[in-house]
Design brief:
FAS1 domain; alpha+beta; 26 strands; 4-stranded mixed β-sheet; 3 domains
Amino acid sequence: MDSVFQKRFFSVKSQQGQPVNVSPDNGPVEQLKFDPEWNTYYSGEATSSSQSVALEQDMGLMMVPSNAAMTDYWNHGAGRVLKDYYGSWERVPDYVVAELINNNMISSFVSSVPSKFGSIMNDANDPMGVKRSDVDSVWLGCNGAVYLTNKVFSPTTYVSVLFPAFINQTMNIMRWGVYKCQYNVYLNSLNSTYSFFIPNNKSLLEYVDPCSYGKSSTQLFRFHYDGSKPDDNDRVWASIWNYDTLTGEVGDSIGCASYEQVVDRLQDILENHIVVGDVTDGHTYYRTMGGSEIRVDHVAAGKNGMTVSGSWQVNEDEGTAVNDIYDQQNGRSYVLNNQPIMCTRMTVRDILSQHDEYSKFLELMDGSGLFETIHNGRNACGGTNISVFNTYHYTVYVPTNKSLEELIASGKLPTWQDVEADEAASNMGKKTADSTAIVNFLRYHIQDNAIFIGAQAMSGDYETASFDPTNDSFYKLHVNSDANGITVTDARGNKRHVLTSNGKLYNRMAKEYQYNSSDAARATQIETSSSAVVHLIDGPLFYAK
């Protein structure tokens, strides 16, 4: 005998706690949670100090459905969707089957005895719901136990909003991103309702890179998937192209993104494509997991006319068509074939500078020191950002030019010309008082929480960026909003209304980025971002009674 062959399973954990993750020809493989033929199985990691002690303390468990249970699952249960999509078990890809098997592989037998059935978790870290009556027989092996079950414990992936991306090869870039960014547990949770917008591989050729907003040339990321790569980290890559946002013309390729950049951008995409809640409940604006707002139109038309728009699409007046819809157990999945939801490059200042109706407020803001292009000397901004924004969503209320001019003429609000005159007269006390009054006035018009007309109705008190030193807290505004308007009540009891006669002056969406470098031209990743909505209101707000 000149050879001895050993049977091994491709798995995350096998002999000595090490993975078996490549085929003999170094090709890619799917993996089980652990090797069921690893005779010295232990539940710890490879770095465990004593494997023998770990072996004596615990072992693995596999819950194995009977043939009858599998047949019923395939024909009538949650597996029916696999039958409809693939036709036979032989055509189901290994990674899909592995998800089912891994959901029934439990790392700890000690934690899975009948008295602890309630603590057995599924792939979404929710209770699996195992009962004594589900187990027909138990066998003990040298490395663990086998429960013969009369039902199939299906992974939540098969019934969640993640499922369309999980099984469809035209969406495998998003599937890869979901698992790399660890959003699978989030999307598989059956305790919440989600609206998951899934750009397919084709649409991810059209992602405008927000990290390029601060550069001299806007860039386009084109994501690609190569399933032949043995290293899972290499299966998704992105080429970078110069891009003219005015003409839509794609220029020269300037290279490829690093793995870190790919994951960074896919996380940005995911955060702007997930809504906690139902986007068909009758409203127009919905907040994503990343804090940005999206606009959803023509819901009744379904896949024959429904559109979704991020702030990029809203400001460009172009919605993205929804091409398919899947009803899942924890919400709906919406497939996008043309382009992903994207966030605008326009900052609040960009929006204020676009319309003369905002000009007086902008004039005050420009002299206030509330704008910045580098945050804390470390993080370059994508444009001229508001310095008090801090990884959240905000509302900026802009009083009409007329109301501000009347306030200034009455002597109740100084101007920056007044501050300059104070300095020229060497009246430094008045200079400080006047400049502080202007800045506090402006900060009182910047409110935490982005409130939209057409979003879910809101009523409550919201903090502003203006600080009250007497109470060691921020001054607040009371806001009421619904599908038709917004009313803002200040500390004096003045009621101001968002003006809606001109659709270009309310619900204006802004996005402000900070990058991982003090030089925007050298930035490679998004450090953080904030979003905002700008409304024109019919009068100024006062924080002092």
